[in-house]
Amino acid sequence: MLDNLSATKVNGGWHKQYSHISTSTHCQMRFAIFLPPGASQTNKVPVLYWLSGLTCTDENFMQKAGALKKAAELGIAIVAPDTSPRGDNVPDLDSYDFGQGAGFYLNATQAPYNTHYNMYDYIVHELPALVEQHFPVTTKKAISGHSMGGHGAMVIALRNPKSYTSVSAFSPITNPINCPWGHKAFSLYLGDDQMKWANYDSCELMKNTSSDDFLPMRVDQGDADSFLIDQLKPENLTAVAKQINFPLTLHMQAGYDHSYYFISSFIDEHLSFHHSHLRS
Q1: Among 38, 43, 168, 228, which has the highest number of CB atoms less than 10 A from its own CB?
Q2: How does pLDDT run across 95-109, given as a tens digit for each residue?
Q3: What is the pLDDT of residues 132-149, one digit of tens each?
Q4: Which of 233, 101, 250, 124 is nearest to 173 (CA)?
């Protein structure tokens, strides 16, 4: 059952927020959806799933990215879930990069996190099923995200290449098994077995991707991003892509940082990129 929290008309379409009890995360989850003008049961539209970064909720992208005007023009729905399970009974740490607001889009295996922190299952299975059941959308979908969400989008697409037409990311954590954010999150969510870590690392997953499972990937990265060297490491991803001829296009953008100012500067290009594949 979905509980409608808000409905706001924008760019001729509608931005709506919903909450529901999740069978994946065993708590109340919230997500936002933008439905473009003309979306109806007789005119269903494709969906872009957007995964946000550390400390974000479903609201950051919808309010700051400036994406809805272009999405309305292209006839694309956008679904933005929260970044983690939340609630008084959900385990947490007093830390911006772990726990609530930092689910890393994985299925935790370590107590006490494994009951609620199943964001991978939520994004891959539960949320699309809900969206396709309750809204005028097709089964065609693309996926994108920022930072931790860029990590999530790429991991999910690489593990489920037949489920998405395309994938893109802004400033993604490309190689979390080799950066501080990834080490902290993976050790606490997944334990010390680094074989499990590789299941949520884009570089490791891409290494083992066959050409039959290639899908178009676009990454935009600002060269003035303060996290570029220590946390994001796009050069690791491009090295793997070059090795196996994976269809990755990396756009290094001069002078841009890690913020939503960066995302808003190039979101139209990402939407057009996905639109070209959602239509095919």
Answers
A1: 168
A2: 999 999 999 999 999
A3: 999 999 999 999 999 999
A4: 233
Q: Are 170 and 147 in contact (CB under 8 A)?
A: yes
Q: What angle do CA 253, 254, 257 make, to 5 degrees?
A: 80
Whether 147 is catalytic is: yes
Q: Which of 147, 168, 171, 202 is catalytic?
A: 147
HSE on the CB side for 125, CA within 13 Å?
Answer: 11
Known catalytic membership, residue 272:
no
Rounded distance between C-alpha atoms, residue 156 and residue 244, angstroms: 19
| Whole-prediction pTM | 0.98
What distances in angstroms separate CA 141 from CA 1, 6, 138, 157, 279, one per listed residue?
Answer: 22, 24, 8, 11, 10
Q: Is the dihedral of CA 267, 201, 103, 77 positive or negative?
A: positive
Terminal Cα distance for the chain, rounded: 33
Q: 104, 197 in Cβ contact below 8 A?
A: no
Catalytic: which of 146, 202, 225, 275?
A: 225
Q: Annotated catalytic, 6? A: no
| Exposure class string for 193-225: b at 16+ Cβ within 10 A, else e | eeebbbebbbbbbbeebeeeebbbbbbbbbeeb
